[in-house]
Amino acid sequence: MQDVLIIGGGVIGMMTAWQLAEAGQSVTLLERRQCGQEASWAGGGIVSPLYPWRYSEPVSSLARSAEREYPQLAARLLAETGIDPEYRKEGLLYLRVDDGDHAFEWARQVGKPLEAVGADFIYAKEPWLAEGFTSGLWMPTLGSIRNPRLCQALRARLMAMQEVTLEEGVEVERVVVEDGRVSGAVTSCGYRPAAQVVLCGGAWSGELLAQLGQSLPVRPVKGQMMVFRTSPMPAGRQLLERVVLADGRYLIPRGDGRVLVGSTLEEVGFDKTPTDEARESLRRSALAMVPALAECPIEQHWAGLRPAAPEGIPFIGELPEIQGLFVNAGHYRNGLVLAPAATRLMVDLLMGRPTEIDPAPFQPALRLAIDGEPVAVTA
Fold it and tell me: Domain FAD dependent oxidoreductase: where (predicted)?
C-alpha cells in the first residue's frame, strides 16, 4: 500500500507528489490523460493574480508565498531535468486601471513595488503598443512562467523519483471509503490502495466527491486563449517583452517571441470547444494593445476549464466525515499562480507539520458547513 494516492496530474497534483516524495512518502499519482494537459497547460502563466488588489487576503497570502518560490523552483527544475520552464521577471504594465487608489493601498500594505507611469515610460518599455496610452501602473517584480514547459519539467522530475509511481491513462471510477476512512480508489486498471488520498482533479473534483455524498462547490469556467508567432524587431527587440494588461485582457510574451492573448470567461459547463466568436474577440483585444499583431499569424487557439470555487478561494484540506481524504481544488484562474504555496500547505497538513499560512480559510470542514450552493466567483 502506498502512503498517498493523488488523483489528478495537473500542476497541483504534480507539485504535491514532488513535495511528498521529498518528505519520504511513497506516492502514486493517477492521471486519466497525460500529466499537465488540462487547465495547467491551457493557462497563461502569469505568476500573480491579474489584479492582485481585488482578491481576498487568503488568496493574496498564497500568491505572495508562491511568487517568492517560483524563481528557485524554475531554476531547480532546469538543473534537475534539463527542461527550462522559462521563468521571466520582466514586470507588468497595467493600462486603463480605474481603481488605482485601491491598488496603491494594497501595494503599501503588502510591501509590493507599484508606481504610476506616463506615456514616455510606457512606450520606452513597449514601443509597439497602440497609440494613446497616457498613463498606467507598473509592477516591476512580476514574473511569468511558460506553463506547458513547467508541466513537462515536473513530469520528468516525478518520473525520475523512486518514491513516485506515475500512472497515466488511468481513469478513477470511485474513491473507496470503509468505516469512515478512505482506503484507496477503484480505477479503470484495478484497485489502488492507499493510506491517504488527495483529490487534485480541478473542475472535475466535485463529480468524484458527489459519489460519496460530499458536495464540493467547484464548477468549470471555460477560458479561451490564442498565441501569435512574431518576427524579431529592430535592434534585437521582440514585438512584446513584458506582460501587458488592459480592460481585463492580457498579452504574455514568450522567450522565443510568441505572444499569448487571453482570455474569455464562459459559463458553459464542461464544454472545451474553441469558438470563432471567441477567436475574433481575442484577436480584437490583442490588436487593440499591439496593432502590429495584425501581421502575425495565429499559431494556435485553445480552451481550458478553470475550477471555480466560492469567492475564488480554493479548498485545501481534509474532507469532513472522511478520514484521510483530502482535496486541493478550486483555484479558479490562479492554479499556476498559487501552486507552490497551495501544495506546500497541503503537504504540511498531510504530514502534520506546522503551516506557514493559516489553513483555516481553505479548510473544507469549515467552509462546506456554511457555503451551501455555489456562489459567484469574484475577481
Answer: 3-349
Across 154-167, b (16+ Cβ under 10 Å) vs e yields bbebbeeeebbbbe
302 touches 147 (CB < 8 A) = no
Residue 209 and residue 178: Cα distance in Å, rounded? 15
Which grid coordinates are listed for 257? 517571441
Cβ burial, residue 186 (10 Å; 0-12/13-18/19+): middle
At 194-221, the pLDDT tens digits run 999 999 999 999 999 999 988 899 999 9
C-alpha 261/C-alpha 244 separation (Å) is: 10
CB 11, CB 36: distance < 8 Å: yes
**Closest Cα partner for 57 from 69, 68, 46, 49?**
49
**CA neighbor of 367 nearest in space, from 24, 130, 56, 72:** 56
- DSSP run (H or E) holding 339: helix 335-351
pLDDT category at 236 given cuts 50, 70, 90 is: confident
Cell numbers at residue 51, please? 489584479
Q: Which residues fall within 8 angstroms of residue 132, CB to CB, at 6 or more apart?
A: none
Q: What is the dihedral of CA 106, 340, 342, 97, to 10 degrees?
A: 30
Alpha carbon 76 to its chain centroid, in Å, reads 19
Q: pLDDT tens digits for 56-89?
A: 999 999 999 999 999 999 999 999 999 999 999 9
pLDDT > 60? residue 370:
no
C-alpha cell at 46: 502569469
